[in-house]
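Researcher:
Attend to token order:
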Amino acid sequence: MIKEPEKKPKLVAIVGPNASGKSEIALELSIKYNGEVISADSRQVYKGLNLTSGKVPGKWEREGLKRKFVHQEITHHMTDMISLRKRFTVQKFKTKGTKAIDMVLKEGKLPIVEGGSGFYIDTLLHDINVPKVPPNRKLRKELEKLDNETLLRRLSALDRNTAKRIDPSNRRRIIRAIEIVVTTRSAIPELNMTDHKESPYDLLKIGIRFSDEELKRRIESRLKRRLKEGMIKEVRSLHRKGVSWRRLDELGLELKYIAQHLQGKLTHEEMKSALLSQTWQYAKRQITWFKRDKDIIWIDAPAKASLLVQDFLARED
């Protein structure tokens, strides 16, 4: 008798650029389909980055010996995990994210991975091996003395393709890329989703896509709202609690430009202009990353996500 292969557990992923409304859709789907959210955001793992990382408002609750982050009675995993003074690698994300997914599945619930960090999402959901390169303290100390432009030129000399793909304002990522190339003595391979189809999950990937004009409008609207809600105050508080200007600069986008404003390097209007421009550039890089994955089903209205999930859960493998 031939043994039938075990069914893969179902998992939904909600992806897309900044300001596309991923968090709200993931929350609504979790409420409707008995799910829990696994955040796939490279900055939401840090404590204290709330408005600046777009973290959903919520609170920590205790359930037995476990603590969970809850928003509207929906548990969110992979948020508020570590101090800003520490580094969180993609390897750690894959390990802890996999444990979070397993925990959700054991509870008989639907894991909903949500985020815009494409590399983190691909690494978590597919059979992708990330180079396990330990920190090179001596090299990092040397690189920390260089400005971003010099660092990017150095990376380009070592690995031109990676230098083209990387966020030029993300100092931490550039330094880490140089560290990997120097240690492994080889270029960092570009992930090709057509070569990494293997996954331990039965996946439904939903992408949120708007026109350029609409996405720009949403980015501007979100920025205005967060500034009004106290984003500058949040960054000032982080610095007063001991987070260095250099560390804030490393984390990029909102943290970088608000930190520069607080240091008197940018006026309020210059800060807003830089944030709008850089957030839009980052959103375009996010879209480019996700476009490579032909399994993503793109929608232009949040309501369409629920119908896709309904059909997906009803489908027998």
Observations:
- The two ends are 20 Å apart (CA to CA).
